[in-house]
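Tutorial handout. Part one gives the primary structure; part two gives the three-dimensional structure as C-alpha cells.
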Amino acid sequence: MTSDKDVCGTDPAPARLTVGIVSAGRVGSALGVALERAGHVVFAVSAISDASVRRAVTRLPESRILPAEEVAARCELLVLAVPDSELPGLVSGLAAANAVRPGSIVVHTSGANGVGVLAPLTAQGVLPLAIHPAMTFTGHDEDVSRLSNACFGVTAADDIGYAIAQALVIEMGGEPVRVAEENRTRYHAALAHGSNHLVTLIVDAVEMLRAALAGPGLLGQQVVDEQPNGLAERMLAPLASAALDNALRRGPSALTGPVARGDVAAVAAHLNTLEDLDPRLAAGYRAQSLRAAERAQTNPALIDLLEGN
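Part two.
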C-alpha cells in the first residue's frame, strides 16, 4: 500500500482502504474479517441468499448490506468473491453500469482466472488484481485462522499491481505467490486435482473399508455404518495423514505398497474384489494405480495389467 511520508521522514503506516465485498459467501466474508483485522474498513457487502446474509451479519456486523452496484460505487478496494462461473457476468454488468470509480482497486478471488477477466473494468481505469487463497473454506470460524497458513496465488497487470497484491496478502497473514496470467488455468487444475480429487479418493477408500469391516465385530467395537467420522474413517486417518505428509516431504519416493513393489498378484486380487463390490470403485482404483505405477517405474507386467493388455 502507498501513502505519503510524514514530515520527519519516518515510514508511514500502510494506507487504510474502504472495502466493499461482492458477495458475503464463505470466501468473501472470511477475507472481509481478515482485511478488517488488518485495519481496513469493510463498509458494505452484497448478500442475496439467507446464508450469505447470516454470514454478513455474524462476521461483519458493522458492514451495510447493499446491492452489488452500490457496494462497487462507494469503495476504494472492491473484492469480487463470487464463483468462477459468475465472475464474467458480474464484471460485465458492473462495467455496463459504470459502477466502479476509476482508480479503484478491483480484486477477484477466482483461482481459474487471471486479470484478463477484469478487462471491461480495467478499460474504465481500475487497477485489476487476481488474489486467490489456496485453501478450502467451510464457512466456519477456522476459515479466518487458516488464512494465516495459506498461500495466495496473485496475478496483476504490472509491477505496481503485484506490489499492492503482495501487501494485501501479507496484511491478511498469508503468503503471496506470483502466478503468471497464462498459467492460471494450470495453477487452478493443480489445486483442484490435489484437493477435490483427494476427497473423492478418501471417500472411495472409506466405502471400500466399510464393506471390508461389515459384519459382527469384537466385543465393544463400534458398529460400522454409513455415518461420517466412524470406525472406517478413524482407521484410515493415520495412514492417509502420514501418506500425505510423506508425499509433501519426500515426493514420489513416498510411494509404498503393492503397486510400488510391482506385485501383480496382489493388485489383480484388489481389482477382482472391487469389481464385485462396485465397478466404479474398481475403475478408480485401476486409474490411480496405473498413475502410481508410472510414477514408481515399477514392474512392466503390472502396468500391462492396469492398462488392460
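Part three, for discussion. The longest strand covers residues 127-133. Residues 26 and 138 are 7 Å apart (CA to CA).
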